[in-house]
Amino acid sequence: MTAIYDRVAYIGLGLIASSMIHAGRRAGLQRMIVGTARSAETRAIAREDGLCDLVTETAAEAVADADLVVLCVPVGAMAAVAEEIGPHLKPGCTLSDVGSVKRAVIEAVRPHLPDGVHFIPAHPLAGTEHSGPRSGFAELFDNRYTLVVPDGAVDADALDRLTRFWEGMGAHVEVMEPEHHDLVLMVTSHAPHLIAYTMVGVADDLRRVTDSEVIKYSAAGFRDFTRIAASDPTMWRDVFLNNREATMEILGRFIEELMRLQRAIRKGDGDLLFDYFTRTRAIRRSIIEAGQDTAAPDFGRGGRPGQRTGESGEGETT
Ligand code: NAP
User: Fold this and answer.
1) In angstroms, what is the span from residue 70 Cα to ligand 1's centroid?
2) How close is the Cα of 248 to the center of ligand 1, in Å?
3) Whose CB has fewer CB within 10 Å in the chain, the N or C terminal residue?
4) Total Cβ atoms within 10 A of residue 1
5) Whether residue 171 is found in the same domain as residue 186
6) What is the pairing mode between strands 122-124 and 145-148?
7) Pair (165, 255) in one structural domain
């Protein structure tokens, strides 16, 4: 494939950026990769591994002359990074991000952008519970969705290039509005993470069951919860703090449903439980039929780390 961008700059070199770099190299999507990260340690690892063609000390240096800049830092760090790079962005470049919530990122980033920069937020629905510059792999986005989430009208050519860039990395691309994105992701990824965190927390609190029993007898459901609950604490703190409205809406509905099941169990209403579980089973079947997961019960342990996870890593990512 011919290169889509001459120079791509990654701000933040964790799971998502390093996966994009590997996937972009696999397909030859850019001529030069520049990267930077907050810590000297991550920058040193990136240099040692040859992750980027150039690793800079600061984000301002990284974006100079870049045709595409991708913000790959936690959602809560987007505003400060945008403020730093804003004055150094090349006129006509595209600025994108991979944050797991979109409205809050748009509000955080837009005020710092000069005229003439095409701001096109995006969100790959792929991830694992692993973090850092060595956790990425080229196949992460294969056959997964990346949602491109422009805030209003954007330059058609810039949108087309970014779409082809993600497609080149193996993703299916769809365009979505920011508010709708935040609600959809709350249902499909964010609320399940909150529930997983809670369930693992409950097991931890239940002192009548010892830690060793929890580990030794961990059944499929709990093991899946622990994998999701192992996701990066900074990332998930920022997701919930920056998508409060949708969190409140979905949690309210979740609590109502839980109470409905609680009542059915108390009253011995087996028909309700059976019908409910039959309906939810059909949803699982349609996810497998859509090619978004495999039916193999390997509980996330087979193959490469997190390969079969969706964002809900965002643990599957976000
Ligand atoms: P990660 O592996 O933890 O990497 C995060 C990177 O951001 C690191 O290079 C880190 O630098 C840097 N960083 C952290 N805090 C920072 C701060 N306050 N200021 C500047 N830089 C900072 O994270 P990731 O999983 O790649 O996630 C990156 C973004 O992708 C997040 O916005 C997340 O919501 C989104 N996302 C994640 C997933 C997923 O499943 N993980 C899926 C889709 C989207 P150091 O290494 O120097 O600390």
Assistant:
1) 12
2) 24
3) N
4) 10
5) no
6) antiparallel
7) no
CATH number at residue 143: 3.40.50.720
Residues 6+ apart with CB under 8 A from 275: none
* 114 lies in the same domain as 52: yes
Domains of the chain: total: 2
- Establish if 317 belongs to a structural domain: no
61 is a domain residue: yes
Ligand 1: list residues with CB < 6 Å: 12-17, 37-39, 42, 72-75, 77, 81, 98-100, 123-124, 127, 131-132, 232, 235, 311, 313-314, 316-318
pLDDT tens per residue, the chain (318 residues)? 789 999 999 999 999 999 999 999 999 999 999 999 999 999 999 999 999 999 999 999 999 999 999 999 999 999 999 999 999 999 999 999 999 999 999 999 999 999 999 999 999 999 988 999 999 999 999 999 999 999 999 999 999 999 999 999 999 999 999 999 999 999 999 999 999 999 888 887 776 677 777 777 777 778 888 888 888 999 999 999 999 999 999 999 999 999 999 999 999 999 999 999 999 998 888 888 888 777 664 444 443 433 434 444 554 555
Quote the domain boundaries for residue 185. Answer: 180-289
User: Does residue 239 lie in a domain region?
Assistant: yes
Give residue 17 CA to ligand 1 midpoint distance, Å.
Answer: 8
Question: Residue 146: helix, strand or coil by DSSP?
Answer: strand
The predicted model scores a pTM of 0.89
Contacts of residue 67, defined as CB under 8 A and 6 or more positions apart, other chains included, come to 5, 6, 7, 8, 90, 93, 94
- What CATH number corresponds to the domain at position 226? 1.10.3660.10
